[in-house]
């Protein structure tokens, strides 16, 4: 009996020892502005923070953690919503990583694993192309010479990877995939970056001419990378040539993996402002939410939008008219209210003005209030008053006293304008992200509401 007990204790200790394998990261942060250093794990192609630390007076920092999986993690600055300024590291447990972080790069020094040494070699080789593509807005937005540089990196990578082995077969295969997906990431990031003019197809090199976005959309492999969902959107944008305006069927076409389809829909769903828009997406594409992670994220999005559900009581807000008289949303109970959140400097807002005026004329004398809410900064209040006169804006015009500090922006999570919202005669929500006046659906909705349907 004692013999069997000893064997059990030995097996238990071996099991516990095997589980308790930690990765230790030691480093120095040398940046112009002090920043917390953050460690992230990769979850379905996006990053989630594991830990954060403030470097000491000399910039030194340290992390010790037990990896949930063998694969890529990310370390760097900023929150999980921004993939820039994060660097891939490979962790498997029972390993050490030593590095120095700067404002625009990282350097390995001291004791490091074979995996991270090879990964760093690839990082250095790809650095210039990555800076010109992923960090396009910071690199002067130059297009000239990018495609030859990219082609040169493609050619170099094919020779560089030959014979690169660490003794870790799983990582060695991952590194080959990393090169392939990194190159796709650099290419699509550059091609879809906003700029005054589009790249000239005559400048394309062989790699770009033959680039096939759909080959990366067949499996979930891209979700192993910190930039996975960003690359997913970039690939779709490259494929459709118009990510924001192309229909869902066009965007989903060519994606073989239902999990990837779910991730694409979720990336859009995370940006919706109204429960109505969320419900439309959910009803149409819920069949693609397959993983536990996806289902949990859907529930979280729904919970956050519950307060904006049609029929929910509106959150009242108070602003000031041109005479500094207080005007509140609740003042207009008994009428349908269309709220237009805008600013004088907002180009898309100004484009809606002619359509809004036409709508006001068509519904003049009916139980509809058109309420324009300016989120111009307090210093621009006189500019707002002049704008009203110059553009002959009528209806109820009020000043919120700034964007981020205003009650309306905080209450309705307004992070982009123009934003149109509809409220019913009882002061309840109809839609807090209503169609714009340029969209015929808005007039159809108002007609339907007034007819009592």
TrEMBL record:
This is TlpA family protein disulfide reductase. Keywords: Cytochrome c-type biogenesis, Disulfide bond, Redox-active center, Signal. It comes from Solitalea longa. GO terms for cellular component: cell envelope. InterPro entries: Redoxin, Thioredoxin-like_sf, Thioredoxin_CS, Thioredoxin_domain, Thioredoxin_ResA/DsbE_sf. Residues 1-20 form the signal peptide. The keyword tRNA-binding does not apply. PROSITE patterns: THIOREDOXIN_1, THIOREDOXIN_2. Residues 308-451 form the Thioredoxin domain. Its main location: other. It holds the Pfam family Redoxin. PANTHER family: THIOL:DISULFIDE INTERCHANGE PROTEIN DSBE. The keyword Ligase does not apply. Gene3D superfamilies: Glutaredoxin. One of its GO terms (molecular function) is oxidoreductase activity. It is found in: Cell envelope. It comes from the Bacteria. One of its GO terms (biological process) is cytochrome complex assembly.
């Amino acid at each position: 009996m004692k013999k069997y007990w000893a064997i059990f204790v030995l097996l238990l200790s071996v099991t516990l020892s095997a589980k308790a394998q930690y990765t230790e990261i030691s480093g120095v942060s040398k940046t112009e502005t002090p920043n917390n250093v953050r460690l992230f794990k990769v979850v379905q192609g996006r990053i989630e923070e594991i830990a954060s630390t403030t470097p000491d007076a000399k910039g030194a920092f340290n992390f010790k953690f037990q990896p949930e999986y063998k694969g890529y993690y990310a370390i760097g600055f900023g929150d999980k919503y921004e993939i820039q300024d994060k660097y891939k590291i490979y962790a498997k447990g029972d390993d050490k990583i030593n590095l120095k972080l700067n404002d625009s790069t990282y350097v390995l020094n001291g004791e490091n694993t074979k995996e991270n040494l090879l990964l760093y070699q690839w990082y250095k080789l790809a650095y210039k192309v990555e800076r010109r593509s992923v960090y396009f807005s910071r690199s002067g937005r130059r297009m000239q010479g990018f495609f030859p540089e990219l082609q040169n990196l493609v050619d170099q990578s094919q020779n560089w990877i030959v014979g690169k082995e660490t003794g870790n077969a799983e990582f060695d295969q991952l590194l080959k995939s990393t090169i392939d997906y990194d190159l796709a990431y650099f290419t699509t990031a550059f091609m879809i970056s906003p700029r005054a003019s589009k790249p000239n197809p005559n400048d394309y090199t062989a790699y770009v001419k033959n680039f096939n976005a759909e080959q990366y959309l067949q499996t979930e492999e891209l979700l192993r990378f910190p930039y996975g969902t960003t690359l997913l959107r970039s690939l779709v944008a490259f494929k459709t040539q118009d990510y924001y305006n192309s229909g869902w069927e066009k965007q989903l076409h060519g994606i073989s993996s239902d999990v990837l389809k779910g991730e694409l829909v979720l990336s859009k769903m995370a940006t919706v402002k109204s429960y109505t828009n969320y419900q439309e997406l959910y009803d149409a594409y819920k069949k693609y939410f397959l993983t536990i992670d996806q289902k949990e994220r859907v529930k979280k999005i729904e919970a956050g939008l519950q307060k904006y559900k049609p029929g929910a009581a509106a959150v009242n807000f108070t602003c000031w008219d041109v005479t500094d008289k207080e005007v509140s949303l609740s003042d207009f109970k008994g009428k349908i209210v269309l709220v237009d959140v805008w600013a004088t400097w907002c180009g898309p807002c100004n484009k809606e003005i002619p359509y809004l005026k036409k709508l006001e004329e068509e519904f003049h004398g009916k139980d509809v209030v058109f309420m324009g809410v300016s989120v111009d900064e307090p210093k621009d209040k006189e500019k707002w008053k002049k704008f009203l006169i110059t553009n002959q804006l009528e209806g109820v015009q009020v000043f919120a006293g700034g964007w981020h500090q205003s009650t309306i922006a905080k209450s309705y999570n307004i992070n982009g304008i123009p934003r149109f919202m509809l409220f019913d005669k009882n002061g309840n929500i109809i839609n807090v992200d209503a169609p714009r006046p340029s969209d015929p659906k808005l007039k159809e909705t108002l007609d339907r509401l007034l007819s009592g349907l």
